[in-house]
Structures are given as C-alpha cells and as structure tokens.
Amino acid sequence: MCGIVGAVAQRDVAEILVEGLRRLEYRGYDSSGVAVIDNDHNMKRVRRLGKVQELADALEIEQVQGGTGIAHTRWATHGEPSEINAHPHVSEDIAIVHNGIIENHHVLRELLRERGYTFTSQTDTEVIAHLVNWERRSTDTLLQAVQNTVKQLEGAYGAVVVDRNEPERLIVARSGSPIVIGLGVGENFLASDQLALLNVTRRFIYLEEGDVAEVTRREVNVFADNGEPVIRSVVESNAEHDAGDKGEFRHFMQKEVYEQPTAIKNTIEGRVTHDSVITDSIGVHASEILEKVEHIQLVACGTSYNAAMVSRYWFEAIAGVSCSVEIASEFRYRKFVTRPNSLLVTLSQSGETADTLAALRLAKEKGYMSAMTICNVAGSSLVRESDIAFMTRAGTEIGVASTKAFTTQLAALLMMVVAVGKQKGTVDQAKEKEIVQALHALPEQIEAALKTEKEIEALAEDFADKHHTLFLGRGEFYPIAVEASLKLKEISYIHAEAYAAGELKHGPLALIDADMPVVVVAPNNELLEKLKSNIEEVRARGGLLYVFADENAGFVSDETMTVIKMPHVNEITAPIFFTIPMQLLSYYVALIKGTDVDQPRNLAKAVTVE
Ligand code: M6R
C-alpha cells in the first residue's frame, strides 16, 4: 500500500528518497513521485506511473536536487493509477504526500472550489494540499496551518507537508496511518515504515494517533492532538538491514518459503525448553491472564485470518477453551456481545492492517479482559497498542503473498494453545512434551517438504492453463486449504476456492469436471476415511484429483488421481507442514503464468486503509 519517505538534510536528499521508496516497493503501488526544495526555495516535483526505477531515471534526467524532500508510492484508492493522481500533490507553494483515505473529501472539495481552488487530480489527497494552503494564509507557521487542517479531516491519514518558503522544515501528521521519524546527525528523516530508512538511521520515534510533528535538520518537536508539546521516546531498531536482498532466489516469495525452517526456529527459540512451553515468554502477566481466560476471540484478515482459523481447532481440542475467529472488517462493524473473561487476540504480519487495528481499538472499549497481538513487526501500531505482544520472528516479509509469516503465526499460536492449556490444567505434561517436540522437529521436516519442489514444479503445468481450482480439506486442514486457495488466486490470478470436504455435496460438487483440478490436503488423521469418501465423490463425477497425502495414508496415483506423498509428521503440527507444498504449488503455477509474483496486481503488502 502507499509508502511515504521524507528527509531534511544538508546533503542532497533525492537519492535517499528514491532508495527509501525502493525499500517500500514490496508493499505494492502503481505510481510514485517526489518533491524536492533547494536552498533557493525552488521546488521541483516529478511523478511517474509504474515502477520506482522510472522515477529514478526521470530525477536524473531532470537533475532534481535539494536538501528537503518528500516522496511517495501510491496505491490507487480515489482516482485511477496515473501521473496526475500520483503524489506529491501541490497547492501553490505547498506540497503534500498522504497515506490513508479522507472520508469527507467530497464536502471539502466543494468548500475549496467555492474558495476558488481548482483541482487537477481525482484524489482525496489534493483537498489536504489546498486546505493547508488556505490555512497558511491566516496562520503564522506551517505547523499551525497543518494543525488547523487536520482538525477538519475525517478518515485516516499519515501525511507530510512542505512549504517552498520554509525549505528546511517537514510537518508530519498521523491519524490511522503509521509514521515513523528517523533521527540522523544533523539530518532527520521520516517514513511510513522504518524499513525505508534503515540505510540512513537506526533511531526512531513512532508518532502516536493524533500527533503532529515539526521536523527540521536539528530538531523534532512533537505535538499531541490537543496541540500540547509531548515527548515520544526514541527506539533503537535492530531490524534486518539486508531484508531487501533476494540472494540466490528468483523471487522474495521463493526466498521466504525457503526461510521457513529458520523462521520457525527463531520463533520458538527461548520460548520452549526441550519439552515444555515457557508461559512467561508469551508476555508480562501472561500467566495470570491465561489462567483466567474463558474465551478467546481471534481477529485478523487474509492469511492471518486463516492462521487464526487453524488455531480455533487447537484451542478447543487441545486446550479446551472456547474460541471464536472473525474477519476484522466484519468484527469492527458488528454489534457483538463480549463474553466474560474473553481475551482478544489480533494476528497480523505487518501490525498495521487498518481493519485489524480498528478491531483492537473497538475491543478495548467493549470490555475484553485483555488485548494480545501475535505480530511480526516490532514497533508496529498493533504491537504498541496491545497489552501483550507475542512476536513471530519470521524476519521481514517482502513478498505480498504471505508465507513465513503464516507458518510462524501457527507456531506461535500452538505455543499459546499449550500455555493456555497448562494454565487451565487441560494440557498435561505428556501432551505438552509431544507438542513441543513436534515443534522442535518442524524445521527439519519443512526442509524435507521443500524437497518436493521438483515434483510440484512439474505438477504446476497441469494448473497453469486452468481457470478454476478447488481445494479441499477437513478439520484444521480446511483452513489450510483456504490458505492454499488464497495463495493460488493471489499470485497466479487463477480463480480458486476452498471447501470443507464434507460440504462438497451441498453445492460445489456441481462444478466438478475435467477442467477443474481438485487439490486435496490429506494427512493421516482420524478424518482420513471421511476424506477418502469425499475424494470418491469427486472421482465419480470425472474430477481430476491432486492429493497431497501423508505417506501412510494409503493413496496410490492412477489416471484420475495424482498423489504427492509427504513424509509422516506429528498430527498436531501437520497443518504447518502441509502448508509448504501448497505454497510451492502456487509459486510454480505463477511462474509459468509469468505474473509479478512478489507484487501481484491490485494488491498491497500492508493494507493500511479500510
Ligand atoms: O499484515 P496482515 O497479516 O494483517 O495482513 C493481512 C492480509 O492483508 C494478508 O495476510 C494478505 O491476505 C496476504 N497478502 C495474503 O498472502
């Protein structure tokens, strides 16, 4: 989704801005732009449709230079992807970049038209530029103008404003869209994500909701939403510096699939002994909270939601605690009843997903006993606003299609299931040992699953010319099928659906024919025989089956069924294990189709708008 970078320095900042935008490219965007002001108060704006490289080339040709600048990658919400709609937007001497959505932009647009402003774009952002310009006419400082402006905005924004007449000043405002200020020596920076600035600084200030800040070369002054100055703490980041390097891999997604053994090792490290889960490692006061908990409400979006769905089976079957799962965009607008002693758990790779964040904020008002997040990005909004943050340690995930974030979420959830079960007395030592040892075994088992790569690459040929694919699973493998279908549609653009296999005969069976491959996730568990009956239902109707089966499940390939045999693993961690071949399948189908694997069309990595 949209990315922001800003810099104020003695040196030329154009290159810093472009490098920052490159580091945010993985988030998904359709156009980009910069505005740079030099010491003579000249402001140059350059915008381009397409990749950041096009912008970089244009900046070189136009010799854009200056010590103060703002830059943006845009992911269209209001107005088509085009150069005219790309940021920065300008109103005379004012330039602005903005993430988020201004919900009252229609009303403001009319008001500003009456005041004589002309609009050159279809964006909601342009109203902010004109509003700041209007306010600037009657205020002493740019800071005041921005403070007055944000009071009139409804919706979400992370915005940075510059004024050609004040060349060494950036004014930044945050409400609903993250902004981080990067501290340098005699120079300062800002961005929507610290990743953009890791090559220039490691020291960050995270703005809070409603903050407006004035950033110059030597000072950062932050003001809370009541206009009073506030001190926000400085955080040293130890985030990976080189996450942006694909190394020997062709795509980030492929690299991240291969990083899963390490990511899982890192996620469990220090949180489990060889046979038990260290409850306190989940968070301060975790033991007391988990002991009292009577219900767990999980809220998430997309892949994170699918991870939550898997854990619902675990929480109820293993820990004996009732658990509900809801898509954040539904939860936040539903008039729900809060159960007594219910723990809200949000799940998110980015920690910035707008709907999940809104769900957390709502839950805090609605009497949940506590709010926990399982998240991959330290310092993200979800982490900062939750009572407990249980971090997955997947490392930076660049590919839009979530892979290692998903499997590490599952590992974290499974540790939490054990911790809850221990506190409640529903998980005994033997069960705990079994699960912990299964977690320890996972990295090596995933290495083995990755070895099916060649077989799956060959199989992908069968899918690449199809328009639809059906994924089936039962129990906790149903959400694994859902996740597999999400991966396939997301990066190969093939329509894919997932069904709980027992639900087939209630409708989807009508779709079965030779043009609709049916992928089945078939572990060797208590539902195997039921699953085999469902497979027969497909076979009897001329369906083409691809069964990813436990080696002991007794499947044999024939002309209507291709069996991909997977090594046997513990039943409880099997959903994590079976995810790997599904990821590989979608990756190889996408390769054949020639799609943009890491930045699939229309999608963004961090969905910071509703
Ligand atoms: O950062 P989050 O985990 O909150 O993101 C939620 C979804 O947007 C995300 O999982 C999305 O579904 C993935 N791109 C799917 O691969």
Automatic annotation (TrEMBL):
GO molecular function: carbohydrate derivative binding; glutamine-fructose-6-phosphate transaminase (isomerizing) activity
Keyword Methyltransferase assigned: no
Matches recorded under Gene3D superfamilies: Glucose-6-phosphate isomerase like protein, domain 1, Glutamine Phosphoribosylpyrophosphate, subunit 1, domain 1
Organism expressing this protein natively: Vibrio palustris
Protein name as catalogued: Glutamine--fructose-6-phosphate aminotransferase [isomerizing]
Gene field: glmS
Catalysed reaction equations from the record: D-fructose 6-phosphate + L-glutamine = D-glucosamine 6-phosphate + L-glutamate
Record-linked Pfam families: GATase_6, SIS
Chief subcellular location: cytoplasm
UniProt lineage: Bacteria, Pseudomonadati, Pseudomonadota, Gammaproteobacteria, Vibrionales
GO-annotated biological processes: amino sugar biosynthetic process; carbohydrate metabolic process; fructose 6-phosphate metabolic process; protein N-linked glycosylation; UDP-N-acetylglucosamine metabolic process
